[in-house]
User: What shape does this take?
Amino acid sequence: MNELGLQTGLTIVVLGASGDLARKKVIPALFALYCQDLLPEAFHIVGFARRPMTDEAFRANVMEKLTCRYVPGHSCADYMERFLSRCSYMSGEYDSRDAYLDLYQAMRLLEGDASANRMYYMAIPPFLFLDVAEALGGAGLVECGPGATWSRAIIEKPFGRDRTSSDHLVSCMGKVFTEGQTFRIDHYLGKEIVQNLLVLRFANRVFDPLWNRQHVASVHIAWKEDIGVGNRAGYFDDYGIVRDVVQNHLMQLLALVAMEPPTSFDAPHVCDEKVRVLQCIAPLAFDRLALGQYAAARFQGQDCAAYRGESGVPAGSCTPTYAAAVLHIDNDRWDGVPFFITAGKALDERTTEIRLRFRPVSSTRFHETGAALPPNELVIRVQPDEAIRLAITNKAPGLDMRLVPSELDLRYQAAFAAKIPDAYECLLLDVIRGDRSLFVRWDELAAAWDIFTPVLHELEARLVQPELYPFGGNGPESARALARRFHLG
Ligand SMILES: NC(=O)c1ccc[n+]([C@@H]2O[C@H](COP(=O)([O-])OP(=O)(O)OC[C@H]3O[C@@H](n4cnc5c(N)ncnc54)[C@H](OP(=O)(O)O)[C@@H]3O)[C@@H](O)[C@H]2O)c1
Assistant: This one.
């Protein structure tokens, strides 16, 4: 028996198995779990998609992305061979009951007489979620195993386009998979340092008393990518940066930074507090949002196309690739503290950071000039190169009293010997364990949509043109003007 203590088998059906997410993230994460003996003895992975493919072709396709991070090089080939022998593939239409009846027969054949739990990973475009869930349910694949087994569905954002469509998705999917069976992935929640946020806040006496409006002047959550939309242009143009990044990933980070301490770290208590803090945020006002779209420029020695020049983007598209928003949380802890949220593609670097700027020290006794000391900042770097840095003022070593800005710097790579798991490894293991604390509950989703739905509708109604910014730059001037308006520096 392995570490999970699972005697029951596990069949993982990856819908959309011919796609990028399945090949680059989902199946490599399952391999990583397998290498660490974290899958049940009797597990099977069945890929399902429309494209015809033999089992061998499917295995060859997924093998290219498996890595030997957890097993020594010389035995990795054996691990891969054993893992791939549990992988098979079936092609079929996503809404076809017959295809799923065939899938069921194939699963039963693999599982034999043993009982098996089932995981359905929907690595498919979002417009297919409902058809697939309904077809799976209609073919009797949900909770159809003998004995006390479970069926769980995993879906990836975007969960709808606004509050109404999100509610519709939640309610229709709920007719097949109950809320308890539905695992909505926001892969930022699986990132190591994001899981550390509550530990940092509540397991350290030095931070907890300062984490409020008396001491924090502003919070900046920044997401930057140094590439354009690439081959996801069709999808992206339909959604834009607010729906693709801000409403989900950045609101999850904000909720973890700003929520009150939960009664326990169990899923319901953590989700309750996240919902509560999101519900304290008023819908984003139109004048607290700045939007941009990248224009052609030379960056890192290459001529980079404008967003409107990307294949699959309509010539006059006004879809924003950059957004900056100022939000306020209407509660005692955060009253008056601006939360500055920025997200942009085709910027100068790839980073995600959370930055808490503390109020300046009022005393001027260290400075004869009376100039203010630089404020302390706590920076939590989510990616790449996970780190936690605290900017402080320090005496420069020497005979004079000279103050210099310095940093306390915790870099994960240097500080911890352990390998940092990929977010998908952690999330898939939690689905198997039934731990829902890193997944998005329906009411968190609703609360996050309530913040953005009115402004998204207004933008669409007014056909607002985003300000152009050069590929590889630092975003539109209007975002910097918004920051200055709220003294965000
Ligand atoms: N890729 C990522 O890193 C990433 C990150 C976050 C979220 N997501 C989300 O995860 C899901 C899957 O992502 P992905 O990048 O793997 O998507 P994808 O490659 O575009 O699609 C996955 C598979 O779905 C099928 N498919 C694609 N377009 C279809 C269409 N119009 N009609 C019917 N079937 C279609 C294709 O398989 P067949 O043609 O063989 O059926 C394709 O191989 C999406 O919901 C995406 O938004 C992806």
Summary: The longest helix spans residues 233-258. The pocket of NAP is lined by residues 16, 18-22, 49-51, 123-126, 128, 156 (CB under 6 Å). The chain has 14 helices and 17 strands. Residues 212 and 333 are 5 Å apart (CA to CA).
